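Section 5.1 Outputs to date
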Amino acid sequence: MSVTRWNWIHGRKTDLIWYIGSALAGWIYVLAVLALGTGLADPLRDPFLQLSIGGRTISLTLGVVVVASWAVLIDAPHVWATLARTWLDPDDWRERRGVLLGSMLFFALGPVAVFGPYVVGAFVPVPRAWMDIGAYLFLVFFRLWAYYHVARQHWGFLVLYKRVNDDWDDPVENRVDWWFFYLALFLPIVLFASAPWYAQTGMPDLYLRTPLLGEISVATFLYPATLTLYPVMLAAFIGYQWRQHRLGRPRNGPKLLLLSAIVPLHLVVFVHPILALFVVPVVTVGHNLQYHRIVWAFGRNKYLHREEPAFRWARFSFRSVPIYFSLGLTFTLACYQGPWVSFMKNTVARAFNTWVIDGIGIIAGTLPPGGADMGARVAATLFLGWAMQHYYLDAKIWRVRRDPKLTEHLDV
């Protein structure tokens, strides 16, 4: 019989609360949505409770309680954590200047994708029905990248647990872990996209249920095939773990706990029509909490003892939890989420409509009747640049195997 290794990244208590137990926040959202949203015609916007305070009626919706609270208090501040970890770090400016400056190009990606087809249409005859293809492709790309970003962070923690538990030398075990992890997290997306109720979620039409021959579509085969493959894959992984245990090969306790926490959550949220409306906060909130904790550990280990003037802002950002949270919230309300940001989006939208569409007239004759909405689309995708910059920088700064200094600063 094998032993189970229980080596942790930052200690049992920290890991169980922040790196593994953070998935519990997603489960709390799941319970809240099922308890409060079932029976509502529009679970995002219909109030589940109305309060009367001082003669005023306040309507509570899941869009506010779940989505807005997550976005403002947890998600957007974790984008700030990346900026504090990179843009305030003199070492990063010396070693990754091109990466930091290049990341600003992501603010242009959305507006170019939205506006591009109309520019092309000014010079080349393009069917009007194709004019929204840029916005459509950008939206699909952005959502897939966002999910991949979450999955990659979970994989990063899984790899850290493999490192600290000497679980990195068996190539067969590594392949099993890799295949199980990515199938377990991405097969539910296929299940969701091909589900009969997909159209009820308001997501972009992926045309998987468009008839190809009679009533037969891609989803006709894809949905039942995925329903079959998922439990087979799960059973194979559990069987492999049991067999290795019986052969006396040590098992990795924290790795299996991490998988047990995140895999069921990523399945449940994609197989229920109401939960699918809240997929972003449900699967992301645990990722956010993991990220805050590991950036906090990095910042405290690296910056607090650096007395050089160049490190004063990075040192200040990680001096205490209230300072760290306040800076994250300030960034959120000033640049990412909240009333002021909504005002800025509207300002950008009006400016774009006036100066570009009406003033320059470069796309004259190609806009649909609702063309005034173009400015709103451009403004919305412009502000998504913060998220895409975060995804990009994250892929560059957390390469533990390639960066010995990172291992030292993370204290793993």
